[in-house]
Automatic annotation (TrEMBL):
Alphabetized CDD domains for the sequence: PBP2_Fe3_thiamine_like
Keyword Signal part of the UniProt annotation: yes
Swiss-Prot/TrEMBL keywords: Signal
Name this protein carries in UniProt: ABC transporter substrate-binding protein
Keyword Mitochondrion among UniProt keywords: no
Matching InterPro entries: Ferric-bd (IPR026045)
Length: 343
């Protein structure tokens, strides 16, 4: 593969109606040769709008961004299967929702030339689908945010086991695995590393360490920024966004932890396949990757510098080898068992 220098098993339970957020709402194609492109994405509306505007600036074709939570978008694409409206689906907290959609007949096969010679999996990070059903465009890391006014870098936890240290009792927050894909990833990772029985024992202890277990994946990091928790479990970009706002927050990459790509895919039978392919090519370009970096995501294009201390080269040694098939087969069962045990 090209050298630069992937499981958020997260089906995000967001709310909202599909609404055009960028590119205008008028009928007709753009000024370029590709025509109007329809993008479905659960990523931050202002962020995806910025991507769409940059594409329009470079290529002339209009991009309509439709925002909703990942589950809502997947259900929408299933409902539109016989008459697809979207050309590209980008983002969803990682590869899990894309893996789950592979057998539903809504994803077309397309890998941009930029990623053609990547290995499917490297250092435990699945970079693209083996049959071309999606490609990673950026990296997310699951780890620990901490309040730098309350915790020094030296004493901050460095492993998942460190969260059980008695000094953190009543000072930790992590999301609710029955509601948050971010936290479901955390649970399933521990099951794969320790076995289910030992993992459940671990979480029985971790629950007692927490002062709150909110439903939102980003809430623990926000609680850390507000001083309501010393340590929060979440994705790297959540912490670095808070830090960029001037909050006293920093991030620890655990010794071994899920590192995953956030993908994009071409929609099977979409109205503008050629435009969709061009937009996917664009997502791996320096221009789009710079926007991702500016939003504190880890770019996958080696020609773009990360705005955070993290890069693929730095985090890949921390990546655990995730059994995606096992996660897909057991995802709902594990969430239901969590609910039965702890709610």
């Amino acid at each position: 593969m090209k050298r630069f220098g992937g499981l958020a098993a997260s089906i995000l339970l967001a709310t909202g109606l599909l609404a055009g957020c960028a590119g205008g709402a008028s009928e007709g194609g753009g000024d370029g040769k590709g025509g109007r492109i329809t993008l479905y994405s659960p990523e931050t509306p202002d962020f995806t709008k910025e991507l769409a505007q940059k594409y329009e600036e470079l290529h002339g074709d209009k991009v309509d961004v439709h925002y909703a939570g990942t589950n809502i978008l997947v259900n929408q694409m299933m409902a539109e299967k016989d008459n697809p409206k979207a050309d590209v689906w980008y983002g969803g907290g990682g590869i899990l929702p894309f893996e789950a959609a592979v057998d539903r007949g809504i994803l077309a096969s397309y890998i941009p030339d930029f990623a053609a010679d990547w290995d499917v999996v490297e250092n435990g990070i699945k970079l693209k689908h083996q049959d071309g059903k999606y490609v990673g465009v950026e990296l997310f890391v699951l780890g620990f945010s901490y309040n730098t006014d309350l915790v020094s870098e030296e004493e901050a936890p460095k492993t998942w086991a460190d969260l059980l240290d008695p000094k953190w009792e009543g000072k930790i927050q992590f999301p609710n695995p029955a509601a948050s894909g971010t936290a479901t990833l955390m649970v399933m990772d521990q099951m794969m590393q320790q076995g289910e029985d030992k993992a459940w024992e671990y979480f029985e202890k971790l629950v007692k360490q927490a002062n709150s277990i909110p439903d939102s994946g980003s809430a623990p990091t926000k609680a850390v920024a507000m001083g309501e928790a010393h340590i929060g479990v979440g994705f790297d970009f959540m912490a670095y966004e808070q830090k960029a706002k001037g909050e006293t927050v920093d991030f620890i990459v655990p010794d071994k932890t899920p590192v995953l790509v956030n993908p994009a895919t071409l929609i099977e039978g979409g109205p503008n396949a050629e435009g969709g392919k061009k937009f996917m090519d664009f997502l791996l370009s320096k221009e789009a990757q710079q926007i991702m970096a500016d939003w504190y995501h880890i770019p996958i294009n080696p020609d773009v510098e990360s705005k955070t201390p993290l890069t693929l080269e730095k985090v890949k040694e921390h990546a655990v080898d995730l059994d995606i098939d096992w996660v897909n087969d057991n995802y709902d069962r594990v969430r239901n068992e969590w609910k039965d045990k702890f709610q």
